[in-house]
């Protein structure tokens, strides 16, 4: 990390005003550059349109913030898909700290070279409606619809409108041209201070309405010529891409990196990363990458989680990285501890309400276990019971649903009608839930008014063809048909691979939905507790609700 220079005199911020088209030209010429610690372009189409409309109506769009510095930092080589020209290294650099989304939008819309007709930069102004909108064509447009890319060239702009006869439309075209060529933007330029001094300023600005995430802030706060958090995480993703865990959220990697530096998984510990030197941060990335690969292998081979979408909780990955960072070659007993940890935290919904205190305790627990000071990886007590499986709704983002899917995957489910093996890899991608179907058909339960069909314990894995064959039939009908054709033994064998017991089968043959749910839930709970390394719990006692607390996980800061 750079440190502030005690001998450098820091100038006061210098306010000015500049035409927005001139600012865009300065960006493309390389006079204004985007430091690498800036976030990517994230604006949506409607935000681009709203910005253009504000300029047209002469509304204020907020100030821009530049940092004028003699320090040569790694900068982006393009903006809005447009190449940025090289500048002489002897000139001071004007780094854009605030206003990237706005300047990117203006540059993209005004200087876009037509390529993909669906480009976000393919914007026109309708002289009749006095409105901006995106178009999805590269063909010639009606005369009253002006592509915004014509504005930077006055000659081409007016030449294209030469045959326009309606004076009202001419006036509207002149107003559009004048507003974009004359629009002034407040510009504040910081003097030549150190990155250490600039980082806190960058963190606090939020004039665009697009809130910086903690990852954006930490990338800025930890950035130096020797370390770039953004590029480091990109490298981690690239390393994990073949293992299909690259899609994890940036927050997960931040937690793992924080723990790798000797900290915890919580926000306060992540904030301490700004105090680490570049060598420490680089070493943390290296150790995290090695541990992350081991974590991927564990998930794939030990619990049957072949991709990140199948993880019940993303934060399980961050914790497992720390476990494998400290114990890269676990013994058989330690592997058993880790497996139990995974299933225990899933069944109990532990990570759904993971708070700061738990994060600190967990990092301490892991280190004690790894050093031999503790005989158990005691994280996530199991308090669930079989009632969980017949009260929770099956949802793609539900930890309980994902646990069911993983338990079925471990057994190797077979289709009830055909006996063919189900494609587990496809099912666990969770891009859709077409492999998961109701054992008691939804339409049958609706007609008979027997209860909610979408409960977890009513879900099995079927091929789409078999699901169509079952349709709305009563279980007593379609199950008896299988028995008559293939024999009861064959059906029982297939049901076992879907964790459906003979008691549950008997209830289904009697179209007893409540009885089926009770029997199936008991089987699922027994299997879950076995995976957790626990003894069966007393039925109906102390039901946990991991999904209710899980839903709050997305509301946490991290």
What features would you describe in this structure?
- By secondary structure, the chain is of the alpha+beta class.
- It folds into three domains: 1-212, no CATH class; 214-370, no CATH class; 386-542, no CATH class.
- Helices cover 46% and strands 9% of the residues.
- It contains 23 helices and twelve strands.
- The strands form four sheets. A five-stranded mixed β-sheet has the order 1-10-3-6-2. It has a three-stranded antiparallel β-sheet with strand order 8-7-9, covered by helices on one side. The chain has a two-stranded antiparallel ribbon with strand order 4-5.
- Helix 9 (250-260) packs parallel to helix 12, helix 19 crosses helix 20 and helix 21 runs antiparallel to helix 22.
- The model is unreliable at 1-10 and 539-558 (pLDDT under 50).
